[in-house]
Design goal:
Elements (H helix, E strand, L loop, with lengths): L6 H10 L3 E14 L4 H15 L6 E12 L2 E14 L7 H15 L1
Antiparallel strand pairs: 1-3, 2-3
Amino acid sequence: MVKVRDAFTLDREIHAAGWNLFFMASEVKAMFFGSLGAAKIQRALERIVAKVKPLNFNGLEVTAIVARHFLGMPYVTVSAHSRHMQHSCHLDSAEARQTSRENSEWARG
């Protein structure tokens, strides 16, 4: 996990290291009823990760956590975008991303 003040700073630091960071335009959301809570946000993030994992991107940026009410019922929407970091300036194919992920998982044991 990387924590930075903003995505622009992260992108600049990654480019300075000779890598490229891709931002996927499609937004992925998960919603839950009730008030904000760490456990509920964690479960929403797990649902988002389950949705984007088959795409084999190696990063995820949480872009919004918004609490609202509808007819007096509180609910929260968590929004995120897939990110992918790699050396090449051209986004790898889905198969190449999958191979890369499998190789890194194998190397970790």
